[in-house]
Design a protein that fits this description.
This protein has 359 residues and is of the alpha+beta class. 45% of the residues lie in helices and 22% in strands.
Length: 359
């Protein structure tokens, strides 16, 4: 094998000329073989280095791509976290705004602090709960409280309305504030979805407004005694006129009593008339709000003046027989929306309350 390999490298002579001198360099087959082997080794080494550098380049490219992908994932997570944070902040702001509304509503209508208001059952909070869970729990508590108050006030308002209907009166409406042109619709009725938080709070405000209006109306009713002794001499309704003896409408109640007996306001309000009134003589009219007015006629003396604020039971004047009267008495009249109503049921309601309180 060795002589055969050496035969590939025949002996060679190289002609060299330098400064007029000629020289021959002989290169033996072994030297040629050694040079070729060295060259081959160098080529293999270069090729190995190149392949290694290429592999390292590929590895670094893969690492760059992986890092780029990881960076994109981190950016996506960061954007998602920022978006979640914004959503949590927005939700927290919504809950804070709703909390302020609840506090105002409870303070305005119920006269208590929200922190002392009853909390619906099943709303206990775990210390280990996440922020999102705590916000959800706060929202459930607020909505549960709004539903409970709406249900309670609606039931109370209905109870007051029934009591007023028994008296022949209608509870004032807070006003639904709805309207628009009538547009017929023949299609199917849409399915009712669960009320949203905004709808629930709108219902709460409406229910509380109705309840407050009904409660205020009940409180404004002139149900107190206009005189100490209720000696009825002429009831509300149709009677024989004491002067003409013809059938006539009597729009109030007459209570007889000694000349100079005190006449009291049947309810809190503002004096809108204190002076002479045709047919009633010296008279006082008190506005109780909600279009309710009580009238006291035939006084001998008036003790209040126009615009004065009076309390229930406060003296308005003294009994007499001024105006169209046959003797010392009080003509007591109650008007609702300018129409006279029978004051007897109101006075009976006050009598029932007094008996219950004594019991």
């Amino acid at each position: 094998m060795g002589p055969r390999i050496l035969s590939w490298f025949p002996e060679r002579e190289i002609y060299l000329r330098s400064r007029g001198k000629v020289r021959f360099v002989r290169i033996s087959p072994l030297r040629q073989l050694a040079f070729s082997v060295a060259l081959l080794i160098a080529l293999i080494a270069w090729l190995g280095t190149s392949l290694s550098a290429f592999a390292e380049h590929m590895r670094l490219g893969y690492e760059r791509e992986r890092l780029q992908l990881h960076s994109q994932q981190i950016q996506l997570q960061d954007r998602s976290l920022r978006q979640n944070r914004r959503q949590l902040d927005e939700r927290a702001r919504t809950l804070e705004s709703r909390q302020r509304q609840l506090e105002r509503i409870v303070q305005q209508y119920l006269g208590i602090e929200f922190s002392r208001a009853p909390v619906p059952k099943g709303t206990r909070q775990s210390k280990a709960a996440s922020i999102d869970q705590r916000l959800a729990l706060i929202e459930r508590r607020q909505l549960g409280f709004a539903s409970e108050v709406t249900r309670t006030t609606s039931a109370e308002q209905e109870r007051q309305s029934k009591a007023l209907r028994k008296l022949g009166l209608l509870a004032p409406r807070g006003g639904e504030a709805r309207g628009g042109p009538f547009i017929p619709y023949d299609g199917p009725m849409p399915m009712e979805a669960a009320p949203s938080a905004d709808e629930l709070f709108a219902g709460l405000r409406y229910s509380l407004g109705q309840w407050q209006a009904s409660k205020g109306f009940m409180a404004a009713l002139p149900v107190g005694r206009p005189v100490n002794r209720l000696l009825l001499s002429s009831p509300f309704g149709v009677r024989s006129d004491p002067f003409t003896h013809r059938r006539a409408a009597h729009l109030g109640q007459d209570f007889r009593g000694p000349y100079g007996d005190p006449i009291m306001a049947a309810g809190e309000g503002r004096v809108i008339h204190a002076g002479w009134m045709a047919g009633y003589g010296k008279a006082v009219a008190v506005d109780h709000g909600f279009h309710l007015v009580s009238l006291y006629g035939h006084m001998s003396r008036i003790l209040v003046q126009d615009g004065q604020q009076v309390e229930r039971g406060e003296r308005l004047g003294l009994m007499g027989s001024t105006g169209r009267s046959t003797g010392s008495h009080l003509h007591f009249e109650v008007r609702l929306n300018g129409r006279s109503i029978n004051p007897r049921p109101l006075m009976e309601m006050n009598l029932v309350r007094s008996i219950r309180n004594q019991g």
